[in-house]
Amino acid sequence: MSLIPFDERDGFIWYDGRLIPWREAQLHVLSHGLHYASCVFEGERVYNGTVFRLDDHNERLRNSAKILGFEIPASMDDLAQATQQVITSNNIVDGYVRPIAWRGAEQMGVSAQATKIHLAIAAWDWPAYFSPEARAKGIRMKWAPWARPAPHTAPTQAKAAGLYMICTMSKHDAEAAGCDDALMLDWRGQLAEGTGANIFLVFNGELHTPTPDCFLNGLTRQTVIDLAKKRGIRVVERAIMPDELAKADEVFLTGSAAEVTPVGEVIGERGHYRFTPSTICRLMWEDYDRIVGKKVATAA
156: which DSSP letter? Predict the structure, then answer.
């Protein structure tokens, strides 16, 4: 499938306080955020013209910036209004929003106290992260060659650009093996997450999910936990070892981009496991679609 490069698209991007033509949204090659990853961002889903959990996303964006030592140059109201302007100006009904903030080019070096903080918000049509066919039968995952870092070695509770380098490398490794995504462990060897989504396992009708102590407690993850509890499904957050996949009845991912996506197979040196999406996957998929206002689709 041919994709239009993101720098060759038309539309509008909110950039440092105003809407500008899409192709004019540029930064200097010596921006600190490009060289030293002093950059935070969010990934938000638009359903029927409205961002799901917009305030929560914006609050996390502001918190991520504080963890990296700077402030987002916009209030919560400013962020909400700018996001709506972007959605409206680009005629987005069902799509994706990317707010991003980074240090500018005023200072080049590890220290960057004098840099200006820039903020941009873009939006585009994006109906699905994984193909409908892969999502329906369960995606294929490969064990990642990289692990999520320990919280004392990286700002793991920030949605920071630098933390995604190992995700890109791991996803490329998985795609080279014919898979859709990579399954990452943490530095202790415990299950962590996919490259951009949290993971849930079903054991005897219960939902088990890794404790998010070195990766993000995703907003979709939180939503699914609430939905499961409303159905009376027990949810257990705990350390999960890789070999426990052998006993799992179902496995699925959650994320703003991935939404609720069943896993059909995990391959690689740490073991080969297969799963069939069933009752719990279907319920969570349907409940999530319902709460965000989508036409309810089934997982099988």
Answer: T
Identified catalytic residue from 66, 137, 159, 230:
159
Residue 1 lies in a domain: no
For residue 245, tell me if it sits in a domain: yes
* pLDDT tens string 259-273: 999 999 999 999 999
pTM, entire model = 0.94
| Count of structural domains, the chain | 2
Is 159 annotated as catalytic? yes
pLDDT tops 50 at residue 84: yes
Cβ-based neighbours of 148, under 8 Å, separated by 6 or more = 156, 166, 184, 185, 186, 187, 192, 193, 214, 215
CATH no. for residue 30?
A: 3.30.470.10
Q: Which position has the token pair 């009752």?
A: 279
For residues 187 and 237, membership in a common domain is answered with: yes
* Segment 286-298, tens digit of pLDDT: 999 999 987 665 5
Chain centroid to Cα 231, Å, comes to 25
Task: Assess whether 109 and 136 both reside in one domain.
Answer: no
Buried b (16+ CB within 10 A) or exposed e, 185-205: bbeeebbbbbbbbbbbbbeee
CB 225 within 8 A of CB 215: no
| Beta-bridge partner residues of 139 | 263
